[in-house]
Amino acid sequence: MVEEGPRPIISASDLEKYGYCPLSWWLSIGLDDPEEDKKRVLAIGQEKHNDLSQDLNSILDREAKAKESETTVLWFAIASTLISLVGLSLVFKADMNIGLIMGVIALIWILAACYFLYLAETIAKKKTKMIYERIILIFAIIGAIIGVNSLTILEQYFSPEGAEILLAVSLVWLIAASYFLYRSLKHIHIAMTKRQIRNIKDKITYVDSDEKKPKLFISKKLGLSGRPDYVLVIDDGYIPVEVKTGRTPRGPLFSHILQTAAYCVLIGEEYGEAPPYGILKYEKTEHEIEYDDSLKDLVLTKLDEMRALLTSKDVHRNHNKPGKCKNCSRRAICQERLD
Q1: In the structure, what pLDDT confidence band is assigned to residue 149 with cuts at 50, 70 and 90?
Q2: Domains identified in the chain, total number
Q3: I need a surface site. Which of 110, 150, 260, 306 has the fewest CB within 10 A?
Q4: Vertex 15, ends 273 and 262: CA angle to 5°?
C-alpha cells in the first residue's frame, strides 16, 4: 500500500477566495506575483486592518502596564506602611500625636483598598473579582494588625530624630505610590476606551499584525493554516474573530463564514478543544458563527475540492451573479466574467 504524502497547506484566506468564486481564487494563485496581488486586493481594507491591530496591541500594552503599576502600588504601600510603623514607634518617645500618625498610615491602606475595590467592581470578571475582594480583606486585616501593634514595635531602639527621617521617607513612598496609582488608572482608562470603541469586552490573547508577525496557526494533518484577526478568551474558551471592512451585508456571506470556520478548525487543533463559535464582525454588525462537526466537515470538503483543482487545473466560475463579478478584484483578467 502506497502511503499518502503530506497534504499541501491551504490558507484560510485562500479558502475564503474559493468560497467567493473558485475562478477568482485560481486566478490569484496563477499570477506571477501572488504577494503583489494580495497587496493590491487588500489596499483599501489594509489601512483599517492596521488600525485595528494597532488598537488591539495598544489595549494589550496598556493593560500590561496597568498591571505592572498595580504591583508597584501594592509594594510601595506596604513599604510606606512598614517605614511608618518604625517611625511611629520612634515618635512615641517624642510625645507627638500618635492618633494623627495612625490616621496617615490608615489612609495609605484605605487608598489601596479602594483602588482594588474599583478594579473589582468596574473591570474584573467573575473569577478575578473574588481575587480583588480577597486582597481588600487582606488590607483590612493588615490595617487592624497595625492598629494593635504599632505603639510598641521597635520603640526602644531609635531616637526621635530618626523617627522624623523615617516619616519623611514614608511620605516620599506614599507620593510614589500615588504616582503609580495614577499611571495605572490612566492606562486602564485608555485601554477601556479603545475596548468600547472596538466593542471588545473579553480578554485578548492573540492579535494578527503585520509589524509583529504573530505565530501562524497551522495543521499539517488537515493541510490548513491561517491567522485570525484576533482571538478572545471567553469562559475559558478560545474564540477566533474575523473582521471584515467595507460594506455591511444583510447577513454573513458564505465565503466569510467559511473563513471564520477555518479559524475555528485551527483553534481546535491548536488548543485541543474546539470553540463553540467564531465571531464574524462587519463595521455595523457582528455574528456568532456556530461551529460544529457539520461546519468542520464543510471546511474539509472545500479543502479537498481545492486540492483536486490544483491537480486537474480545470477551474471555472460557479455562479451567475453579475454583481459578484462586478465587485471581484480579478475581474480585469477573468475570461469568464459576466458583463
Answers
A1: very low
A2: 2
A3: 110
A4: 10
